[in-house]
Design a protein that fits this description.
This protein has helices at residues 2-8, 12-21, 45-52, 56-64, 72-81, 86-100, 116-124, 144-148, 163-169, 173-176, 180-197, 202-214, 216-224, 272-304; strands at residues 130-133, 139-142, 232-239, 243-253, 261-266. The longest helix has 33 residues, at 272-304. Helix 3 packs across helix 4, helix 9 crosses helix 11 (180-197) and helix 12 packs across helix 13 (216-224). The chain is elongated. It starts with a helix and ends in a 7-residue tail after the last helix. It has a five-stranded antiparallel beta sheet. The chain is α+β, with helices and mostly antiparallel strands.
Length: 311
Amino acid sequence: MKSEQRNGGGTELGHFLRARRARVTPEEVGLTAGAGLRRTPGLRREELATLAGISIDYYVRLERGKETRPSVSVVDSLARALLLEDDEHEHLRTLAAQAARSTPEPPVAPGRSVRPGVKLLLESLRPHPAHVVSRTNDLLAANPSGLRLLPGIQDWPAKERNIARYLFLHPAARDLFHDWNTQVRGCVARLRALAGTDPDAPDLTRLAGELLLKSPEFARLWERYDVKGHSHGRKTFHHPEVGDLTLGYQSMELEGTPGHRMVTYYAEPGTADHDAMVLLDLLGQEQSAKAASVHDERSAAVQDDPASPLS
């Protein structure tokens, strides 16, 4: 984001290099730390430059944003020296390409609408919880159990329903997730990856700015600059209505959308987890029916009395 670059200096590429350099110890790359107190966490600039086979001056200019066109070989050498995994390496390449663009592309606020066909798919997946989220984890659509899986989020206005906001700011989230720390790390990593490729995106700027102000945990993880999220796995929930349940999950990109994903949860039929999932779907359906009934009553009141404050 622009404010982040002004405060930290340089480009998003430089910020990423600084953050990752601070997390690699000399011992991890076969160097001797030496005697005395090291003022720099992780590797020193000159150590990383030597490991990558580039001059110290060139590396300093890269980190400070003075050099914005590193070659592919330099990027790959830095990735090896920083012990980056494949997706982190690819993120570094993307940041290098972005830094090389002389005229940045103007940020565009992505659409929030979900196609009717996708909503039909959500309904057809019942009783399996499923929801559609935006690239910044706005909850755009859900089937009954997909909404009920996150207790309390249905009480928020639709435009405020965001899974990252829920994880860090809703009082129920810490008790809901058995491994809350793992969940929030993955969530921030996905947002961090987006910040690297589209740092001035309006939707990201608003969300990250809010969470940086309201959540010290988010601010700490944001500074770590992890960019590796999770697209599948298993999650254990301590749900206040259906008890403990462990569900597999799969995240799928929806082609033809501005970064929307469908996240679906599942359990083996005949298991206690599946039974709990079915109960969750029933509870969610009841909630949906009540909400629809309230909406119908309000609509009828408006029709009967055009001067009603509900209109």
